Amino acid sequence: MSPRIWVGLPEWEPARMSDLAARPVSGVTGLVLGDPFCPVRAFPGGVRDILPLAAHARELGWQVAYQTPVYLTERNFNETLDLISLLREQLSLDLLLVHDVGLLRRLAQEQQGLTLCWSLWGMGRADMLSRDFLDFLRELGVALIETNKPHRVVPLQQYGFQVAYGLTKNPVVTFGRHCYTEYVSGDLCTKVSGNVPLCRDRHLNIVNSSQLRLQTDGYQLINQEGSPMCTLADSADEYFIYARGEDEMEEALNGLRDATNV
Amino acid sequence: MDNERELEVVAPAGCFEHVQAALAAGADAIYIGLKGLSARPDSWSFDLSGAREAAALIHANQRRLYMALNAGYSEHQAESVTAFVEQIAVGDVDALIVGDWGLMRRLQKLQVPIPIHASTLLGVYNIDTLHQLAEMGIQRVVLNTNLHVDEITALTRAVSGLTFELISYGGLCANDNRRCRLPHLTLNGEYSVDCAASYTQIGQYGEPGNQPSFDLHIQDIDLTPLIGMYAELGVTAFKIEGRTRSTAYITRSTQALRRAIDQYRFTTVPLNNAPYAHTRSEVQL
Questions:
Q1: For residue range A89-130, what is the model confidence (pLDDT) as tens digits?
Q2: Would an 8 Å CB–CB cutoff place A204 in contact with chain B?
Q3: Which helix (H) or strand (E) holds A182?
Q4: Any CB–CB contact under 8 A between B181 and chain A?
Q5: Is A183 on the interface with B (CB under 8 A)?
Q6: Between residues 220 and 259 of chain B, which touch chain A (CB distance below 8 Å)?
Q7: Nearest residue to B162 via CA among B234, B231, B218, B99
Q8: Could you name the CATH architecture of A4-169+227-260?
Q9: Are residues A126 and B105, on separate chains, in Cβ contact within 8 Å?
Q10: Which domains, from first to last, does chain B contain?
Q11: ipTM rounded to 2 decimals
């Protein structure tokens, strides 16, 4: 069975989805909607934006995955649950990317039957895995684990999980609850660019005293130097392509085709 | 208002000298790291024998000892954790601070007879995660430094039986305090915080030029002027970070926190008039 290929862009618009659908052979199975950090970057209008976009994706024949927020506090927890319910009721949500144990626990109680993916940002600082942790995730309903480490794919599969491999041009070095673009520029995101979030068109390069070169990308700091978007893992069950634009997406799709014959 | 409730100063120790300094400065509890399972280098952690030596002194002074098992827990450590649990006894330490869900699950299965605190490294942000921890028998949660006041209030009032600890003296980082991927150890195994290095903005191909420098380790937290507020929110333990810091720092920070807590408990003087604490210029509220 061919692996599913998901594409996530910083923002989706109906025309962009239609362009992707019009390509002769994209190989793409579904779209990842949602931003794991910023409440406004992908969907300035919140739920009003997400549901029509998800519906449009469905009309074009895509499957739909929703990327939940990394930081789920009492400010946005119930809103996120409500959105998941809506997406599920109206569009038969295909996949949910989760990073928070509390959300997993609630979904296990109220939303059984969803395909849950434990995403990269759910891992700890040392990013280590143990059977104890994997058993813990399994008990909370996780069936799919995302990794960007090729050597983890087969061991995770052997332990009974489906595995998703993530491709990105500029790997995320770290992230936080502050918007780095605002922090470095000193400008308020929407003040500078009107209704368009500042991070959509400005990536700021920074360097530290030990010559570590990074770039701001909203709430993420990424490697300034990009690397080829080819996959080193050819046996994953799913692939996530996190691209900043169509060119990067195309490069990743080509890399995937070369590696997996998809 | 019940100012007489027990509020705890939790001080760090990376060596025996730190333990002595923290006791002398008025710590109610001292936390140390276990070699091999601590988020700090082994040179600033204790083996079980060293921990027992520290425990003897701490318990002789009627204070408490907590042991941090808060490094990433990987499969190859499962056996050593089991061996550690078999050796450790009630009375050696008063609580284990655990920073990994897998390790927590293992300790739960091994029925460790010692209270467990959920480290800030677990990333507890919502009430549902608190319920998960309560079900696993956890007694205390160390709150994240990037929570806002309303979020802390929601947590402390949600689940009975849990107590809450707040990092009150230490670093406030721009990056995620749990999942930061910047290098935190040098090739020699020394603790190093890359975010504390000075950064400069550059052009796409340019050099730093005359841009002002900044860091990602925004500033040191000093919540001593706000102890009363956080106590009213339900926080009962106030932690100092700094197992790798100097003995002088541990003495100074423990004394400052001790005074702040005692002032809150025993006087009615507004804490923002406290003469001893250097107030943070910006508090994340």
A1: 998 899 999 999 999 999 999 989 999 999 988 876 556 789
A2: yes
A3: helix A180-185
A4: yes
A5: yes
A6: none
A7: B234
A8: Alpha-Beta Barrel (3.20)
A9: no
A10: 8-173+218-273 (3.20.20.70), 176-216 (no CATH)
A11: 0.93
